[in-house]
Amino acid sequence: MSASPxxxxxxxxxxxxxxxGASGAGSLGRxxxxxxxxxxxxxxxxxxxxxxxxxCGDGSQLALLDLPRDYVGVxxxxxxxxxxxxxxxxxxxxxxxxxxxxxxxxxTLSLDVIYHLVxxxxxxxxxxxxxxxxxxxxxxxxxxxEADWPDPHVRHRNFTSYVAETQPDWRLLxxxxxxxxxxxxxxxxxxxxxxxxxxRPSAACTLHVPVMD
Length: 213
Ligand SMILES: C[S@@+](CC[C@H](N)C(=O)[O-])C[C@H]1O[C@@H](n2cnc3c(N)ncnc32)[C@H](O)[C@@H]1O
Fold this sequence. Notes:
With 213 residues, the protein is an alpha/beta fold. Helices cover 27% and strands 20% of the residues.
């Protein structure tokens, strides 16, 4: 399903953060702990030395992540970046428009972002950047499949097919389902997103599944 031509994802997120809103349910509670458990172990086991986080949000998820000093948080919302800079003064945060100035990183992250890239051009541009900026791994936490959704800021896509078509130098190394699949009766405590870890075809990768409380 195509998006409304009137909807702007960047305007939506800046307005949401400026109004005091947060990144969302996926950045809190057990959903955030699952994401952190997977990533912290992945970063440690694979000796990741640098990270670019594309769509870092308000910093709630970042607060749970043990990431190397060489970290850059990127977001389309200046209000979100201001919050992150205040909360993590030793880390670097840059607007999405400056992404062309960034050096590559061993790992790029896209956590609960892909299904918010409502406009086709934004989706293709952001996905291209996500892979172009990574030297070893790309970790995506997202839904994967077309589905109608009532919220205008959500657009589900079959992104793995798009990546397979457009990123021949990368291979899907692992699909790790989240242990709390989406339940419409508990939308704030469940998620339609899973982890998808990409690497170069020759990449060896260690991935542990955390035990959830
Ligand atoms: C649901 S929040 C997730 C935040 C964080 N990654 C997390 O897991 O908590 C989605 C974030 O993606 C950002 N975003 C949306 N479109 C973007 C784009 N084209 N480039 C960079 N960030 C974008 C939003 O501003 C928002 O902060």
